[in-house]
Amino acid sequence: MKKTAVIGAGSWGTALSLVLHNNGNEVAVWSIVEDEIKMLREKHEHIEKLPGVKLPEDILFTTDLKEAIEGMDYLILAVPSIYTRSTAKAMAPFVKEGQVIVCVAKGIEESTLMTLSEVVEQEIPAADVAVMCGPSHAEEVGTGLPTTVVAGARKKKVAEGVQDIFMNEVFRVYTSPDVLGMELGGSLKNVIALAAGMADGLDYGDNTKAALITRGISEIGRLAIRMGAKYETLSGLTGIGDLIVTCESRHSRNRRAGMLIGQGYTMQQAMDEVKMVVEGVYSAKAAIALARKYDVSMPIIEEINKVLFEDKPAKEAVRELMLRDRKEEHSNLEWQE
């Protein structure tokens, strides 16, 4: 048994706290929101974000960050990506050498273009930092449906430690050393999912969705490999696997926001309607900035930015993607003379 704390009591943090507890670990859950902790203490259920999923009474719920962190072996950082740096700053005074911080949110910091693990390493150099991602909606994890994810870290023993505390008969965990590839796949797929949702909102059908998913992973792969990630990662659970589920699932907040935009909502109206953090909106600007920094063509990402931030109609963006200059699908394949 390990001592674990989940920092962030949203739907994903709540679901993971249940997985950890079911595996026999000691679990504390922290939130900065007093009303949220009060609800969890009284109801043992996140009524707003994960209704119907009951939490055991011996999970500690607290707003005291020091109480949550001190003496814990693993700290699961589950706040939305836009709050990762501020939360890491607040955590830093209480984190000791050897504690493992597992980043489970997905995003790229817009102002620095850093991945979330890089942000945490910068703010908390004492910690060993890992990531965990893959096709894993909280709504399904919370009800015990079979799920498969990847734990990534630079050190094998750190990744295997994360694997040990989470893995069970319905939550399978692989390991990987390609932290960069995992984080880029997990972040950029949210932007492509916005595009897929827009196509759904426009009633464009399965052919359009399949094209967006396929060309989307091509764009993500071009950038990730240029930045030093591995092809195998993008073809695996944290690449194409995560992309498929986020583009297709009824649980996907990014797809839902995209659908609303396709139906005529503004970006802000869509975010207000979803009532949860839509990570793809925050990753979109960072994605196009990375594309320009590394001189990589990412036409879907570019059009999504225009829809989100320049009020370009979604229908017009799809039309321009379809009318781009003709190209080979894979330019490195050889033709017969």
**Share in β-strands:** 5-15%
Low-pLDDT segments: none
Q: Architecture of the largest domain, according to CATH?
A: 3-Layer(aba) Sandwich
First-last Cα distance = 64 Å
Number of strands: 10
Assign the CATH class of the largest domain.
Alpha Beta
Indicate the overall shape.
Answer: globular
Order of strands side by side in the largest beta sheet? 5-2-1-6-7-8-9-10
| H-E string | EHEHEEEHEHEHEHEHEHHHHHHHHH
Descriptive terms for the model:
337 residues, alpha/beta, Rossmann fold, N-(1-d-carboxylethyl)-l-norvaline Dehydrogenase, domain 2, 2 domains, 8-stranded mixed β-sheet, two-stranded antiparallel ribbon
Task: Give your account of this protein's structure.
There is one protein chain. By secondary structure, the protein is α/β, with parallel strands linked by helices. It has 2 domains: 175 residues, NAD(P)-binding Rossmann-like Domain (Rossmann fold, 3-Layer(aba) Sandwich), CATH 3.40.50.720; 143 residues, N-(1-d-carboxylethyl)-l-norvaline Dehydrogenase, domain 2. Helix content is 52%, strand content 14%. It contains 16 helices and 10 strands. The strands form 2 sheets. The chain has an 8-stranded mixed β-sheet with strand order 5-2-1-6-7-8-9-10, sandwiched between helices. Helix 4 packs parallel to helix 5, helix 8 runs parallel beside helix 11 and helix 8 packs across helix 14. The protein is globular, with a radius of gyration of 20 Å. The N and C termini lie far apart (64 Å). The model has no long low-confidence stretch (mean pLDDT 94).
